[in-house]
Amino acid sequence: MKNENKILLDKIISRKAKAFGLEMIKPERAGNVVSIMREDWHLFMEMRSLVAPPLQLQMAVYAKGAEVRMLIFPSPVIIKRENIGSFIYLSNVANHHLYRGAALGRFWVDRERLDFAYEVILKEDLLERCADEVENQLFDVPYAHFQDLHIPLVMLAGNVWEADTAIRYLEELRENGYVDNEKYGLW
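-> structure tokens emitted (187 positions)
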């Protein structure tokens, strides 16, 4: 990646981290310093709800070659072997609703590592031509979708809900713009 594009990306990430109140670590790679982190930026966030436990998320951003890759995932891992199918089902349904088709990333589940993640890979020329859209795709879009998934994710992880309930909640939220929390035992 061109140096001027890395500088632009750094400005975007710093600005959005401040706007979202995210904690950021930028691994040092100057001189003799070698970081154990492979990504170029690493951010931490916590989603809170009045009716469900918080959801801790980490975000890793890589600038490699002519691409920017961003990955957001719950940490610690929230999937267990016995409920992995529920998370796969939820990620598939969530992908149908991604920003009305304008999201460039996708949710996925890693069966071996038991990870649930949102990933987007953007070409460097998109950063050069449309930095605002890169900013939107790296932060606004995934954050909005994790907000919608917060309650279904923590309820699945805690074995409080089955997949059908989590999906019904998500679909009702997406269709109506709100959910009656009492109907889902959240009040």
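The chain has a mean pLDDT of 91.
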